[in-house]
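Because discrete structure vocabularies remain unfamiliar, we first show an illustrative case, written as a sequence plus integers encoding its fold.
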Amino acid sequence: MAKHDIDMSKRRMFIIATALWLAAGSGLAAAEELLTFKLTAKDGRFSPETLEVPAGTRFKIVITNEGPGPEEFESDNPRREKVLGVGATSFLVFPALKPGVYPFYGEFHPETAKGRIVVK
């Protein structure tokens, strides 16, 4: 292989790598720009119990478990679940939803850890 061919191959690899890096970066930026709501699990309850979300908009819920013990955020429609240990913070991304009320609950405290997403 000639030196010129090697240089062209390196340039192509650089261009492809740069394009992939930019594409990944723009995807991260889009995820960071999602409308975000905070939810806390503490003492077997969620706070706030009601999240009001605009219809037709993807959104993210950031959940923090302040304990004691683990908790699992769970919704049946849309189907989402996330188990969190004490002190853990994580998030769930939701699709754009139609207007309505979408209940969620805590798997470890189903009688008290209840809430709803109200889409308007």
